[in-house]
Amino acid sequence: MNSVKLIATDMDGTLLNSRREISEENIQMIKAAQRAGIIVCAATGRDYAEASHPLKKAGLSLPIIGTNGAEVYLEDGELLAEKGIEETLFRTITEELENQNVYYEVYTNKGAFTVNKQQGLNLVIDVLTGKGSQYTLEEAHYLAEQRFEEGAIKVIDSFQALLEERTRILKILAFSAELTVRNKVRYELADLPLIITSSAMENLEINYEKATKGRGLRTLADHYNIDIAYTLAIGDNENDLSMFQEAAFSAAMENAVESVKEAAGSLTSSNNESGVAKVIEKVLVPEKKSL
Questions:
Q1: What's the topology of domain 6-83+212-284?
Q2: Which of 34, 189, 191, 239 is deepest in the core (most CB within 10 A)?
Q3: Which of 10, 12, 47, 240 is catalytic?
Q4: What is the residue extent of each domain of the chain?
Q5: pLDDT > 90: percent of the chain
Q6: pLDDT digits (tens, 9 = 90+) for 127-172
Q7: What CATH number has the domain spanning 87-208?
Q8: Is 0.85 topped by the overall pTM?
Q9: Are 53 and 150 a contacting pair, CB within 8 Å?
Q10: 231-235: strand order across its sheet
Q11: What transmembrane ranges does the database entry give (predicted)?
């Protein structure tokens, strides 16, 4: 483990706690890794702007694998790689989602967009106040509104405008509380050149098949001339599995879904117990119990 040179950590449910913040312990261990010459990157379903916000708040500057690998940015904000969804494919996907009456948001090189703010607010509130939530209804309302006020999601009249402006589509994030509906969408889109994952119980993350966190990890490793044998991935949900398949070492959070725990080389504490920091500590202090 002391040979690790590149660490990729998921954000929501992993690096971020349930308050959607980075703990002081995680911040300090990431900075210690950077001082030791290890590159730490964030690998997330968020787009670059939304991912940057909690990192800047924590005083961290990291490369970012964004929108599940559809975009890869260097630490200074330079775009290294991008793999989007072409227009015909986008129209096929959105037609199916609308046929199933599924709410969705579109992530692009210009940010993320919705055509129905109220539905977006209601969905976020439902997620934040769901089973096991630590949020009050008032707090959930505040956080949901903040998502729009901070510009993480922009409201437009029609997605057609994005296509007319030749905006590059990176990801479609769809939501449905009904498992049968989510499975129906997966089935209907199964033969298309897509990868469909999930980052939460009630969502579907739809990307072009070559846009994965695993490919993003390899892109960064190649850029920094780091052999994949010296990489480590940390995550908690289905969209992190491609990183686990690519990296030499992997660690699942205590709060991870079962499929991720089964795929991981090791387990760490939950996102509310600074599990990322504990993994990094084992990298920096070899005498600690190895992963």
A1: Rossmann fold (3.40.50)
A2: 239
A3: 10
A4: 6-83+212-284, 87-208
A5: 78
A6: 777 656 667 888 888 877 877 776 678 889 999 999 999 999 999 9
A7: 3.30.1240.10
A8: yes
A9: yes
A10: 79-82, 71-73, 64-66, 39-43, 6-9, 231-235, 249-252, 266-267
A11: none
